[in-house]
Amino acid sequence: MTTATEVQIVEARREHIPFVAWVVMAANRSHLPKGMWDINVGGSEEDVLRYLEVLADTEQVHWAHYSLFKVAEVDGVPAAGMCGFFENELGPVSMMAGAAEVNQKIGRTPEDIAAGWERSKSIMGIIMEHEPGAWVVEHVATKPEFRRRGLVERLVHEMLEMGRKRGATTADIGVLIGNDPAQRAYEKCGFRVVIEKRDAEFERVYGSPGARMLRRAL
Predict the structure, then answer these.
(1) How far is CA 88 from CA 65, 80, 85, 198, in A?
(2) 2 is a domain residue
(3) Which residues face 83 on adjacent strands?
(4) Does the pLDDT value for residue 2 go beyond 60?
(5) Does 160 map to a domain?
(6) Chain segment 160-174, per-residue pLDDT in tens
(7) Measured between alpha carbons, how far is residue 75 from residues 3, 82, 115, 209 in Å?
(8) How many domains are contained in the chain?
(9) Which domain holds residue 113?
C-alpha cells in the first residue's frame, strides 16, 4: 500500500527563508564539496547558512532574495527551489548592495570582506554574459530525499511561464561542468548548451573545469 503525496508549487514566503538559504548554498556547491559562498564566507556550514539567511531577507532585492523564488512543497514540506530574474534589474549591482547590507548587519569587517573575495574571486573566470532581456533561471536545488520525483521539471515549467509573462523570449540557465544529472534535466526541459567557459584557477579553487550556459526559446 502506498501513500499519495501532494506537490504544490508556491511563491516563497518569509518562512521559507531558511530553506531558500539552503537552496542557494546547495546550488552553488553543485556536485562539489564547496561552492562560492562556502569559500567566500568561510567558517562552518552553519556560518554560511546564517549569512545566506540574512542575505535572503535584505531590503535590497537581488538574485538570492527569497521573494524571487518558487518552492516545490511535498505534503507541505519544502523540497526544491529555484529563482528567476532579469539581469539588468536584479543582477550584480543589486547583489553587491544586498551583500553590503549583510556585511553591516552581521559585523563583517573590511578585512573579512577582502579576504573572502580573495579566496573566491576565481568565480569571475566563468561568469556568463546573458542576452539583453533573457530570463535567467538560477539557484536550482532539491533536498536529497526528494530527488528523482520530477520537481525540478515542474519548477522550471513554472519559472519559464513567469518569464514569458514578463515579456522574455529566451531563458538561460547555468551548470558547472561535471554536473551531468543537472545538465540532462535542463536539456529535458528544452535547454541547449550555447556557451562553455573553462578556467584553470577556478578549477584549482573549486574543483570543476568551468561552467556551461544553456538557453532555450520561450
Answers:
(1) 16, 26, 9, 25
(2) no
(3) 69, 138
(4) no
(5) yes
(6) 999 999 999 999 999
(7) 11, 18, 42, 38
(8) 1
(9) 7-217
